[in-house]
Amino acid sequence: MPSVFETAPAPSAIPITFATKATWDAIRAGLPAENRQFALANGFAAKPGACLTLPSADGSIRQVLFGLEDETGKSRDLFRPGALPGLLPPGVYRFANAPHDVRLAALAFALGSYRFSRYRKNDLPNVRLVPPDGVDIGDITRIAEATTLARDLINTPSNDMGPEELALAAAELARRFGADFSTIVGDELTRQNFPLIHAVGMASSRAPRLIDLTWGDPGHPKVTLVGKGVCFDTGGLDLKPSSGMLIMKKDMGGAANVLALAQMVMDAKLKLRLRVLIPAVENAVAGNAFRPLDIFPSRKGLTVEIGNTDAEGRLVLADALALACEEKPELLIDMGTLTGAARVALGPDLPPFYTNDETLALDVAAHAKAENDPMWRLPLWPAYDSWLDSKVANINNAPSGGFAGSITCALFLQRFVEDTTRWLHVDIYGWTPSAKPARPEGGECQAARAIYKLLSQRYA
Ligand code: BES
Ligand code: MN
Ligand code: ZN
Predict the structure, then answer these.
(1) pLDDT at 164
(2) Residues 72 and 176 in one domain
(3) Is the same domain home to 72 and 157?
(4) Which ligand 1 atom is nearest residue 409's CA?
(5) pLDDT for 75 beyond 90
(6) Is 2 inside any structural domain?
(7) Are residues 262 and 115 in the same domain?
(8) 152/133 Cα distance (integer angstroms)
(9) Are residues 100 and 146 in the same domain?
(10) Which atom in ligand 1 lies closest to the alpha carbon of residue 238?
(11) What are the residues whose beta carbons fall under 8 Å from the beta carbon of 196, sequence distance 6 or more?
(12) Which residues are close to ligand 2, an ion, with C-beta < 5 A?
């Protein structure tokens, strides 16, 4: 997708004036008389999200008015300007005055220009923006491109985004940034001791695999990202109902997001040694599918009883997390679309995060807020850990009862992470159910932006 930012001089760029209820009177008073009348006739009152193009005498667009929430409003949406690319006629624009947060407004403008156009080269808005003064447009472009990668990967339907295609996307990223790349495919997973990844993926005609990408100076601090890459989640034999299965092409959202994060880290040349691990599988139904109450060994050595084949994400992550810990990274981050319970608790826009490090918790919360990439901490509540007990194996993957489903999933993963490893887990949704400013309906990049900023601060 071409950049939305106009880098050539654009003296005729059309000004966009941001107005709130509080500033509108003064802005209106400064307009030419006929435009003042035009705004009145069109009932423009600077309502948040309202957009009006004001004509010149020759009929061209002289100026755009766009309504924002009041400066102090508690429901202020800093991404509101992300609606503009969908509202404006083709052209080159510039900000005439400052929105509430000019950097986030420019970012929102770029994020709001995204359209999924793989199967229909239609609707890309031909709306460009002159980079606002004082904004690091290189960094915004880097974030927007990574967001496009995550969204495209998620939006691509499962028939064109199986484990192999996901691995190809990771290989392409590795090639672009000179990273080392390898995969372990099919029965080789068993031979190299990844029993859970193999168990979940073996029923699909598309072989499961573990994707392994490494980049950066080996002497730098090790940061490892692990992403759930379930390319389609039927639920396995504990089959999902059709309503629940409908958007399960997005079940590789964790993988898409760690690839987006990796792209930002590598493009910004952060001073860290990056590793990305993605267990890529399809949770399919077939005669050789894994079954309820099957018991498998795991890379960590724990035996795992299958309470539900639909709790597959934590299984594939478990083996990948165990591998990650073997080289003792300074920081281990995993993301995945792991539970419906996370969405029930916090809704689609606010992923819960879990960590065993208090400083990291504060840092994540601060960057999430600053980047408008919200996350909310939930506890690794020790008293619920016993709910994972199995009567016949070391652990069960799906506690009965279903209470605190996102927490018990995090506790399951914690059993596969070394106590001494600093660890962050994010239970993302990876999907925008209905379009909002800067967030078109469909696949979404969540948590990656905030974590990129956190890593930028720690490893500049
Ligand atoms: N991929 C799903 C979780 C999911 C469902 C995310 C819907 C977003 C929207 C995951 O594999 C799953 O099915 N989890 C089960 C776990 C349960 C069986 C313990 C769930 O959340 O119901
Ligand atoms: Mn599932
Ligand atoms: Zn799943």
Answers:
(1) 99
(2) no
(3) no
(4) 19
(5) no
(6) no
(7) no
(8) 30
(9) no
(10) 18
(11) 296, 298, 299, 304, 315, 316, 318, 319
(12) 233, 310, 312
pLDDT tens, residue by residue, 185-213: 999 999 999 999 999 999 999 999 999 99
Looking at the fold, whether 94 and 196 belong to one and the same domain comes out as no
Is 281 close to ligand 1, i.e. is its CB under 6 Å away?
Answer: no
393 CB near ligand 1 (under 6 Å): no
pLDDT at 72: 85
* Confidence band for 115, pLDDT divided at 50, 70 and 90: very high
| CATH code, domain with 405 | 3.40.630.10
In this prediction, residue 365 carries a pLDDT of 98
Same domain, 192 and 87: no
Q: Compute the distance from residue 173 Cα to the ligand 1 centre, in Å.
A: 28
Q: Rounded to two decimals, what is the model's pTM?
A: 0.98
What pLDDT, on a 0 to 100 scale, did the predictor assign at position 186? 98
Q: Which ligand is nearest to the CA of 338?
A: 1
Residue-level pLDDT at 125: 79
Domain around 73: 14-125
b/e string for 425-444 if b means 16 or more Cβ within 10 A?
bbbbbbbbeeebbbbbebbb
Q: Is the pLDDT confidence value at 60 over 80? A: yes
Residues counted in the chain: 460
Q: How confident is the model at residue 295 (pLDDT cuts 50, 70, 90)?
A: very high
The residue out of 125, 160, 180 marking a domain boundary is 125
CA distances from 8 to 5, 11, 83 (A): 9, 10, 24
DSSP run (H or E) holding 210: strand 209-215
Distance of CA 10 to the CA centre of its chain: 33
For 166-192, how does the pLDDT look when each residue is reduced to its tens digit (9 = 90+)? 999 999 999 999 999 999 999 999 999
Q: Quote the pLDDT of residue 102.
A: 98
First to last CA, the chain: 28
- Whether 348 and 408 share a structural domain: yes
CATH number of domain containing 71: 3.40.220.10
| CA–centroid distance, residue 241 to ligand 2 (Å) | 11
Q: Based on the structure, what is the number of domains in the chain?
A: 2
The overall longest dimension of the chain from CA atoms, in Å, is: 81
Q: Residue 130 domain-assigned?
A: no
pLDDT on residue 121: 82
Mean pLDDT of the chain: 97
Last residue of a domain, one of 90, 125, 160: 125
The DSSP secondary-structure symbol of 131 reads P
State the average pLDDT over residues 421-433. 98
Domain check: are 320 and 434 in the same one?
Answer: yes
Q: Where are the alpha helices (H) located in 60-204, listed in sequence order?
A: 84-87, 102-111, 137-155, 163-177, 188-191, 195-201
Q: Which amino acid is at 244?
A: G
